[in-house]
Design brief:
By secondary structure, this protein is α+β, with helices and mostly antiparallel strands. It is built from seven helices and 25 strands. The strands form three sheets. Strands 11, 12, 13, 14, 18, 19, 20, 21, 22, 23, 24 and 25 form a twelve-stranded antiparallel sheet that branches. Strands 9-5-2-3-4-17-16-15-10 form a nine-stranded antiparallel sheet. Helix 1 runs antiparallel to helix 2, helix 3 packs antiparallel against helix 4 and helix 6 runs antiparallel to helix 7. It starts with a strand and ends with a strand. The model has no long low-confidence stretch (mean pLDDT 94).
């Protein structure tokens, strides 16, 4: 069974799959070639799985599993226009010009391709990618991104100790859907999407999993359903009433938070306001740091924040000017449209 494919396209697909599987789990760094009305190649980081259609080919049984790194290296400096893929009983052969990679491979089961999918919505890759990048900016390994398809929006929450992020995309999903995605997989998905040269993506729900599609491309992402109680709690953040608003330049606040993160070694720092003075402070056993900005007088407060996580979130808030908004429970830092928000819990008022 043979198929000739465009060498540049195959290389780009393999590099995308390389970003998806990442480097943290060596056992995931394999490609699976299988037949499903044609030749497909797939890879998974054990949560997110991507399947890519390569072209029509005679039917064969089982999948052929080969090292992703071998295929990636073979294609890395290929100069010819086409690559010939030959699927044999226990071997996979790639031929590019005068170069041939003949790999003895394992055989495995063909991934199931059935199951009912329900359409959710279509989003531009750019807006989904940007929201994903911002909402996961404050997360660490072991934490989760919460994704909600609601009546008029897609909401992404990055829930972490001491800081919450929210990214909002205006659209009208066909049905409600919620999922929790592990942080490591979120970053893998983001890096994979950066290699995907498309304008829009279609989103589906399938047996409780999120499915993302584009012609010849299918991504399926594991996740846990979000409880109604947790959804209600998260959506209550959107109802926080702003009592006071301060306008500021993001670059100025980012600079001060970056310094606080370095001096505190990524630990906690404070933002406080008393009168017309807004301060960013670090206090450690062997040092103290204070940066002062002058603002309009208003309600005095103190916020204790994880400096490394706030630095990361501010860096991915793509705007020149920001709002610092005081609500009953939070200091909110947002862009002007309110589609990117950072929530820091107020510790106390003076």
């Amino acid at each position: 069974m043979e198929l000739v494919v465009d060498a540049r396209e195959l290389k780009e697909w393999v590099y995308l799959l390389d970003k998806l599987v990442g480097t943290t789990e060596p056992t995931a760094r394999f490609l699976s070639f299988f037949y499903r009305d044609g030749l497909w190649v797939s890879a998974s980081d054990n949560c997110a799985k991507v399947e890519i259609f390569l072209g029509e080919i005679p039917r064969f049984e089982d999948s052929r599993i080969v090292s992703l790194d071998l295929v990636k290296y073979f294609l890395s400096d290929v100069k010819v226009s086409d690559v010939r893929i030959t699927v044999l009983q226990e071997r996979l052969v790639l031929k590019a010009g005068n170069e041939v990679l003949d790999v003895r491979c394992k055989t495995g089961e063909i991934p199931p391709g059935d199951g009912e999918e329900e359409f959710l919505c279509t989003l531009t890759k750019r807006e989904f990618e940007g929201a994903l990048n911002f909402a996961s900016s404050n997360l660490d390994e072991g934490e989760f991104l919460i994704l909600l398809f609601e009546e008029k929006d897609v909401l992404m929450f990055g829930a972490s100790t001491g800081i919450m992020t929210l990214a909002q995309i205006s659209t009208i999903p066909k049905k409600p859907f919620s999922t929790k995605i592990p942080y490591v997989t979120v970053r893998h998905i983001f890096k994979a999407f950066q290699r995907l040269d498309v304008q829009t993506l279609d989103f589906y729900e399938k047996s409780g999993k999120l499915v993302v599609k584009y012609p010849h491309f299918v991504m399926e992402v594991c996740g846990d359903e979000v409880s109604e109680e947790e959804i209600k709690k998260l959506k209550s953040l959107l109802e926080e009433k702003t009592a006071e608003r301060i306008e500021a330049r993001r670059q100025v606040l980012t600079k001060l938070v970056r310094k606080a993160a370095v001096l505190s070694r990524g630990d906690y720092a404070t933002i406080s306001r008393r009168g017309e003075s807004l301060k960013v402070q670090v206090k450690r056993k062997n040092l103290s740091y204070t940066a002062e900005l002058f603002v309009e007088s208003g309600r005095d407060f103190v916020v204790v924040f994880p400096s490394k996580k706030l630095r990361s979130a501010l860096a991915r808030m793509d705007t020149e000017r920001i709002f610092l908004e005081i609500t009953e429970r939070f200091l909110k830092i947002s862009n002007f449209s309110g589609t990117r928000v950072i929530y820091l819990e107020l510790e106390e008022f003076f």
